[in-house]
Specification:
The chain is an alpha/beta fold. It contains 11 helices and 12 strands.
């Protein structure tokens, strides 16, 4: 399946819940997602059977990798059962997950047994004060580090860590986070602060360009580029010349990669989004529940992807984004 720019449908991100145990300011600021915020009720969420059914349809259309996201996916009760169902889908090569890591000490082993291949843990600071400020939580950063250790211990490797860098907030910690990752045997990817949704207070002056991150890392530990394997790989990879593993940057603001985007996103309410910066999605929950056949749903998805012309990050670079956009907590990162 190719869209209007020839981009193939290869990757699917599935949000399994719109809830999260943290209130990170660039994703779910408490001012918006506070006690009065109405989250989806259980009946509005896609069931595991519905998710597996859609996964089989997407695989027939070319999807080879599925990443589970949220909100926080580990808050969805029985998520290991969902992983097992997806891992059994014929033709699907990999099931992975992005998580805040807090529940990994308890769930890493059952997730691995169910067929989860890898996890990516979000971690924006190693300093307790900064971590608590960014995540708006009383949890110490040690709680996340225990999750990373648990994932490594059960073989969910290589463990990757995503760090969103913001000027004047945590940019002074780039080297310390990289050093911890080198010593811990995990791969950290520094991500430019993005204007996903409309509630995270994004300002361009708070973006730390990936080029600056690479320059600073190279000054501390010489690095060299690793050949990027192809479409759909958003991280620019570098290897340490001293053999201490890899590090990556995701330059979605300063070096948009829309031309290589192969990702579709499915919200926890069953809406198909063809871009992280979209304002609306295609309702798939209704046809799932009203007797529509798999073939008819497949045709709906195919037609939507074929008509796709999304290139929001490139448009931002050309003059900025405007209008409503879906919040990141609703469709995952």
């Amino acid at each position: 399946m190719a869209d209007q720019f020839g981009r193939l449908l290869q990757d699917l991100r599935i949000s399994v819940t719109d809830r999260c145990s943290l209130r990170c300011r660039y994703c779910m600021p408490r001012e918006v997602f506070g006690p009065e915020h109405v989250f989806l009720d259980r009946g509005a969420l896609l069931s595991f059977e519905e998710i597996a059914r859609l996964a089989r349809i997407f695989v027939r259309l070319g999807v080879r990798k599925i990443r589970l996201t949220g909100g926080e996916p580990l808050l969805r009760r029985g998520v290991a059962d969902l992983v097992a169902g997806l891992a059994a889908v014929e033709g699907l090569e990999e099931v992975t997950m992005t998580t805040n890591g807090l529940l990994l000490p308890r769930l890493a082993e059952p997730l691995r047994r169910s067929g989860l291949r890898r996890v990516t843990v979000s971690l924006d600071s190693l300093d307790d004060h900064t971590f608590r400020e960014l995540a708006d939580t009383v949890q110490p950063v040690a709680s996340v580090l225990k999750g990373v250790a648990a994932a490594k211990a059960v073989g969910l490797a290589p463990v990757k860590v995503n760090t969103v860098v913001q000027r004047g907030v945590n940019d002074r910690q780039i080297e310390s986070i990289a050093e911890w990752a080198r010593d811990s045997g995990v791969t950290v990817r520094f991500i430019e602060f993005m204007d996903v949704g409309t509630t995270n207070g994004w300002r361009r002056e708070r973006v730390v360009p990936a080029a600056e991150v690479v320059e600073r890392l190279h000054a501390r530990w010489p690095i060299e580029p690793v050949h990027r394997p192809g479409a759909g790989m958003v991280a620019e990879r570098y290897r340490y010349l001293d053999g201490a593993g890899e590090v990556g940057v995701i330059a979605s603001v300063t070096r948009p990669f829309c031309h290589a985007c192969t990702r579709a996103r499915l919200s926890s309410a069953g809406e198909l989004y063809t871009c992280l910066f979209a304002s609306a999605g295609l309702d798939l929950r209704t046809p799932l529940r009203d007797g529509t056949t798999d073939g008819e749903i497949e045709a709906l998805i195919a037609a939507t992807w074929f008509a796709r012309t999304d290139r929001s990050s490139q448009l931002r670079a050309e003059g900025g984004l405007s209008g409503p956009r879906v919040e990141m907590s609703y469709i995952g990162g």
